[in-house]
Amino acid sequence: MTGTNEALRFERLREQDGKPLLPPTNLQGLVSGGGLDTAKVDEARRMLVQAESELAVAPGYPGQERLFWLTFMLARHYASVNDRQLAGQLVEAALPKLPRGRHYLVLCGLLARNYAALGRLDVALQLLTQLDPHSDDLHVDTSYRFSAAYVQTHAGDFREVLRVLGLRAEDVPISDAYDLICGVFRAHAHERLGDLEQAKDQLLAVAGSPQQLAGVRQIVTLQANLGLCRRSLPEVEVTVKHMYENAIDTGSGINVGAMIVVPIVLSLVGVAGASAASALPGDLGHTVAPAVIVLTVAGTMVATFGSMFRGNAKKKALLTSGVQGVGKLLTVEQTGVRVNKQPMLRLRMLIEVPGKEAYVVVHQEVVNELNLARVRPGATLPVRVHPEDPRSMAVTWSS
């Protein structure tokens, strides 16, 4: 495939990111915590037998979809409880009943991984040749990449792991459901190739929170025979613990709370003013009440917007006189707030300033949509920091 075609393919794949592959509605009751509910394994087995019978009577996509999902969920369940023989049997029974498309290729990747886990690398490598390394379907492409990385990790070819997964988390589009496990295999490959710092960086890029680290530990436990991230994971755990215990809140960003308070205050003042006007005798109510309303509203507006303007002035001062540094993005969270149609994000960053010890901040920033592509875990942003107050900082987007 030419470079131009590959660039267009990556563009199409990235457009599909964030759109999970979900089972049909009538099977979603079997799912719990992202996998098959262990209390419903027997029910899923009965439904699988029924789906096979229905597909024999009425071939077509609805039956194929049910067969795929029931096989996929059951096989993953049995693999997780170390009954890989049964997992493989279920997949091998389903493949001949499916056309060569998304469902077939995803199950074929699962079968390749299953054989690798069983130590049958010859079969696993042969199955990889049946996958599609040039698909425009993100879920098919992810199945190929993860399966190849999994098999090659068992084979000890860590350069091939990095070729298919990319050197960094942002290099290759991966389906959301596989971001974490692919990140673990990517970090492990870096570690095994001797680049511990890159291994830690890449592990931190996908596991920058205690919740994500819990997922990493589960992956490492389930793949205990591979010894995943033995050196990098303990160090990342210490880093994340430090991040969450010692993070400094910059108090930056627009004071959205104050903006919300303004209309509330105006409403309350209006109600109070009306009550005062009716309570005071004669013309006094019509004179005093409006004056009180005007003064209260003016005071509220001055306090609110004065605070906002001071914040903007402070940021401008930092951009010209602050010490230049680098902020490495550890986690990026949506706040649900938009200002002038631009999203406000909560950024957890490792701030590095020459001559000082690195520290972690939690910083809220309204991000222009043109800059959103730059805001991702593992990326770095130029910052300016007050020389005497580490809480006072600003992102310099134009640098």
Word description of this protein:
Keywords: Membrane, Transmembrane, Transmembrane helix. With 399 residues, the chain is α+β, with helices and mostly antiparallel strands. It folds into three domains: 2-246, Tetratricopeptide repeat domain (Serine Threonine Protein Phosphatase 5, Tetratricopeptide repeat, Alpha Horseshoe); 256-316; 322-395. The chain is built from 14 helices and eight strands. The protein has helices at 3-16, 41-57, 61-80, 84-94, 102-117, 121-128, 138-155, 158-165, 179-192, 196-206, 210-222, 232-246, 256-279, 282-321, and strands at residues 31-32, 35-36, 248-249, 323-339, 342-352, 359-366, 380-385, 393-395. A six-stranded mixed sheet has the order 3-6-5-4-7-8. Strands 1-2 form a two-stranded antiparallel sheet. A hairpin with a 7-residue loop joins strand 7 and strand 8 (393-395). The protein is globular, with a radius of gyration of 28 Å. Residues 255-262 have low confidence and may be disordered.
Main structural class: alpha+beta
Classified by CATH, the class of the largest domain is: Mainly Alpha
Summarize model confidence as the mean pLDDT.
86
Q: Extract low-pLDDT stretches.
A: 255-262
Separate helix tally: 14
Order of helices and strands: HEEHHHHHHHHHHHEHHEEEEE
Q: Let me know the CATH homologous superfamily of the largest domain.
A: Tetratricopeptide repeat domain
Would you tell me which CATH topology of the largest domain applies? Serine Threonine Protein Phosphatase 5, Tetratricopeptide repeat
What value does the Rg take, in angstroms? 28 Å
Name the beta content range: 5-15%
Count of individual beta strands: 8
**Percentage of residues in helical conformation:** 55-70%
Shape: globular
